[in-house]
Amino acid sequence: MGAFDFLLQGLATAAEPMMLLYALIGVTLGTAVGVLPGIGPALTVALLLPVTYRLDAAGSLIMFAGIYYGGMYGGSTTSILLNTPGESASIITALEGNKMARKGRGGPALATAAIGSFVAGLIATLALAFLAPWIVEVALVFGPREYFALMVLAFVTVSAAFGDSALRGLTSLFIGLALACIGIDQLTGQARLAFGVPELLDGIEVTTMAVAMFAVGEVLYVAGQSGRGDEKVEAVKGSVWMSRQDWARSWKPWLRGTVIGFPIGAMPAGGAEIGTFLSYATEKKLSKHPEEFGEGAIEGVAGPEAANNASAAGTLVPLLTLGLPTTATAAIMLAGFQQFGLQPGPLLFAMNPTLVWGLIASLLIANAMLLVLNLPLIGLWVKLLTIPRPWLYAGILLFATLGTIGANPSTFELGLLLAFGVLGYVMRLYGYPIAPLVVGLILGPMAEQQLRRALSISQGDWMTLVQSPVAAALLLIATLALVVPLIMRARGQGQVLSQLAADED
């Protein structure tokens, strides 16, 4: 059977009434959360992990994917009307979108963002459906060496891509890898780092860690900030519909943003923010109205928003085919798969084709739902922006605690929730990224298992890791991903120092 046949079967699965309900819940929650400033899809998926513990696996994953897409949609509302990007991928949208809102063109800005996201999401999801089987065929020839090298690449690129400092990213990663060692050794059956505590023999629950780091840590961080001024919400004036000229200036940026965003989202060192920046720069260079950029150019909203949503679909390519998360939300979704005993990767397509193709097909349905939800309900999303911050974050803290108790009713687990929440607050305070820690905790045991299998096969010969051309190439790419940014940063600092010395002379 070809990808098209599988996709049709997936659509039949995704069109079941309960699956449609899960998708609707996901996109509605995702949009609402994306609209709220400072709360991203990663936090929402983390909060819902314990809640969905006893639900149907396919329905829960469809809900998570809907939240991911909805969060990408909703972030544009905050950026345009509040000039407050909920996450880094929405920074560019705020540049032009808020200027349009101040000129009374908030409606067309929101419309081009919503329609562009729909177009990009539709094309990128179809690309995911037809690209995934090809990557799965390549991944099926991977052995322990190749998988270990692939995970090293994921560790390095995630650590280098998140945050301003590669060293801080690696520090966060190694904390996650250390926590992943707690519990029973998978090969020998010996207890490691449990310190005689029975609750630690099963290891650290990824669900508890994710909720603590993303939800509790964020709440503590926001509560610790003081002196924040009131943010002004720009009113949506006039019609939300686009004029004929707006359509003419938007459709090409939508397509270009899709082409730019999807492959960048699919790369291990990708990330939606890179695609949005590239899309903005491209539109500025190709625009017939370059003087409008910085003053409210509609192309500066259409292109980056399309790139943003295309990268979200691109992120699912390495997650579903190789089991590699390239964003914080993808890392939490990986934890969602694992809580149902599923491991994303090439075998997922062979062992659970109904689930994985139903998930991919549900993204097409979710896209249509989001377009229907976003345009008529803009007034409702704007009202969400007026919720007082103390009420909002107090509710998140309560929901996180109740969800953890529901999934694992243990006093010790609540203590871990608080401890890791404080750790998340301290890491945010000092600029350490959260995502590498969670990725280290999730992928650490798998990387260790593949490494030990490779060494067992080669009878302890470490050179076996570079004797495979594929593994050697992946390790070389990982090394370059770590070293090149450091060299570029050092050269940049050197040029700055040289310029300062020249100015003094």
From TrEMBL:
Assigned keywords, A-Z: Membrane, Transmembrane, Transmembrane helix
The UniProt record lists the keyword Membrane: yes
Taxonomic superkingdom: Bacteria
Domain DUF112 span(s) in chain numbering: 20-438
TM helices/strands, residue ranges: 20-49, 109-135, 147-163, 170-188, 200-223, 316-335, 355-378, 390-409, 429-447, 468-488
Family matches, as PANTHER family: TRICARBOXYLIC TRANSPORT PROTEIN (PTHR35342)
Protein name: Tripartite tricarboxylate transporter permease
Organism name: Paracoccus fistulariae
